[in-house]
TrEMBL record:
Keywords: Signal. It comes from the Bacteria. It comes from Amycolatopsis xylanica. The lineage of its organism: Bacteria, Bacillati, Actinomycetota, Actinomycetes, Pseudonocardiales. This is Peptidase inhibitor family I36. Residues 1-28 form the signal peptide.
Length: 116
């Protein structure tokens, strides 16, 4: 019995190596799906508990993982990381305060948002 298990594991290892060797490499840059339009806003998946800022101050938070955004602002060097390091996206925080979220916190592609 022990020999059968070892033989089966060895066969799987060889087959797995062959399959991996023949498989094309995955692309390093997989584009995120775009935010979707609904009820007058663009809805995007985002990191939970993200700060909403106005004039350099945190005015509220988005606690959920799916929120709406109305437009994007380009040009602020503190917008976050790739793929849009200078982009901020306008929304309303869960407490009702309006402001911008760093684009780096949004998982979906935000190119579909119109400029503010």
């Amino acid at each position: 019995m022990k020999n059968r298990i070892i033989a089966a594991a060895g066969a799987l290892g060889v087959a797995g190596s062959i399959m991996l060797a023949g498989a094309p490499a995955a692309s390093a840059s997989v584009e995120a799906p775009p935010c979707s339009w609904g009820n007058g806003h663009f809805w995007c998946y985002n990191r939970p508990n993200i700060p909403v800022e106005w004039a350099g101050k945190v005015v509220g938070y988005l606690y959920g993982e799916y929120n709406w955004f109305s437009c994007r602002y380009e040009g602020d060097p503190n917008g976050g990381g790739a793929p849009h390091p200078n982009r901020w996206d306008f929304t309303t925080a869960d407490n009702g305060a309006r402001g911008f979220v760093r684009d780096q916190y949004i998982y979906d592609e935000t190119n579909v948002l119109p400029p503010c």
